[in-house]
Predict the 3D structure of the following.
Amino acid sequence: MITIKDVAREAGVSVATVSRVFTGSELVSERTRARVRDVGARLGYAPHGAARSLITNRTNTIGVLLPDLYGEFFSEVIRGIDQTARADGYHLLVSSAHEEPAAMEAALRSMRGRVDGMIIMSPDAALRERLGTLPLRFPAVLLNSGIDDSGVDAITIANFDGAYAMVRHLIELGHRRIAMLGGSAGNFDAAERLRGYRAALAGAGIAPDPAWELEGDFSEAAGFAAAERLLASASRPSALFAANDSMAIGALSGFRQGGLRVPEDIAVTGFDDIPIARYMDPPLTSVHVDISALGERATRRLLGAIGDPDAHLRGVEELPATLVVRASCGARRGR
Amino acid sequence: MITIKDVAREAGVSVATVSRVFTGSELVSERTRARVRDVGARLGYAPHGAARSLITNRTNTIGVLLPDLYGEFFSEVIRGIDQTARADGYHLLVSSAHEEPAAMEAALRSMRGRVDGMIIMSPDAALRERLGTLPLRFPAVLLNSGIDDSGVDAITIANFDGAYAMVRHLIELGHRRIAMLGGSAGNFDAAERLRGYRAALAGAGIAPDPAWELEGDFSEAAGFAAAERLLASASRPSALFAANDSMAIGALSGFRQGGLRVPEDIAVTGFDDIPIARYMDPPLTSVHVDISALGERATRRLLGAIGDPDAHLRGVEELPATLVVRASCGARRGR
DNA sequence: GCCGCCGATGTAAACGATTACATCATTCCG
DNA sequence: CGGAATGATGTAATCGTTTACATCGGCGGC
């Protein structure tokens, strides 16, 4: 492997000069700069990242910790993070599937000296608790972790409001028998959406029926299974609100397979408004969240904290969640 | 920031001993090991990644270069890569959106000293040429780049076979007027799929109609637009084969909105078999590719090359692409 | 009782860059 | 013409680890 020394020797200058050329310092004569550049290109030299980080204490990398890497939601978040980070010359070090706090801690440790800051997505409540006690060695932004402490940086979605608006909308369409397909137990977003659902029902004076609070796991398969369960049960709701779009899509498919028409026989709605939602048949009524903006905002906040830790003021930002009415709720005839 | 020296001082041993404890060397007495462990935990010590990489020449990280990060296809590939890499204790450094060769080269350079190897996805033909001339400084595996040189490591999809099988299937169903919605110009996968389409038509003695070779860009929007175009044109095909599922889904939606029934009025099929395909209405007939396996195979190959560069033998692997018949092609009644 | 060996530990030299400081040649001004 | 200021370059310390080599004590075999 060719190093800065090789370039220096070949160009007949000291390593300091080569370094100055490659870090873009002004203090090099035009002639020397050109010569060093040439030699560098000819030899195929590239500065060694680790060596550079060691002395500068900067890695130009941000770490991303995710619970999983599955589905359109996460890919959109990462896209938002990546775009923003790249614009500022940062790379992304991703690490996923940290179900257990221990695994997460290990991942966090292993990031030391490899990243300048972290974006941590830990929707699990138990995990979040643990995280608070963890001595973070670098700037960090939490995503959807339900933390409400202005001492930390975090971005959240207006889960409650979104769910409330959705259920309210269904009620206004005349639905009284509204089921909710929830997310994984312990998941913060899921809990908040459920809370919004209950509040909306209560607000309309509808008694909640525990049998209509189904448990899911955010996957299409869970939606499909829930639809089958509802089809088999004696009393069927007139509307199903799924805690995310993937489950709504699965449910759509399940109901159809069971011979039900959506929205005529049953309304189905989701949450997140993933890109594909509008292409469903019927197009899916959902709660729009600008998912990639979620990643973008988190990244901006993090970059701010990295750039000037003292000036940076921490806080929790909430992203709006707005109702998007399409055909699957029955508000629009056909399409 | 606390370093190995702090731990050494606090534990009353030399840095060498601390290092030995944290690298898992045998040569430490049980008593000392325990003491160092304790002190380390108490002080919240974590080895500095960059410093470690510098001396060991290992980063335990693999770099991933992608053209973009959009949609389920990429997210599945990354998932495959991540799972395999993590199982071997590797992290992922991702970098996306390298449309131009220059940007790609820059990204590649900036990875030196930060990764042990790279997985490069560059479906663009021009890019691939350039890449060949680039002196790669680390093991690399190419993904879907259409390279057919046993001197490099690469994984490809059986694009031609898959497309051929799909079109053949449509012909067997009685279709003669089959349109193809292609992918981006210059994209290798797209070109191969187009080739398969043409070959199948030719094999059945059907004259190709250039007007029915539409250009797309792999997005849902492109599929939607193509459907609109076909609806407006005088002669309409009886089947549309889209070069990927996203476009097929967009087309499905477009045709429906134009009042056409799928598959009764027009058959629609895709390629990739992304997870959501089976939940469409009608469920999408597609060409199944084990996308996450694509990432997994690439990673295994790369890890092999990293582990033992001498023993490793390079080569191109092709992943099968098999027809999955669902309802959107009309082969099955209803769903 | 001496020697050699072995296991546990320490010392110090890398790794490849950046950068404060020193050096040297020029230029400019009084 | 002397000396300060300026600009280009070099020297060497430094970042936090790992690891080859040295050291040292204790133990077993002769």
About this structure: Chain A touches chain B through 56 residues (CB under 8 Å). The two ends of chain A are 62 Å apart (CA to CA).
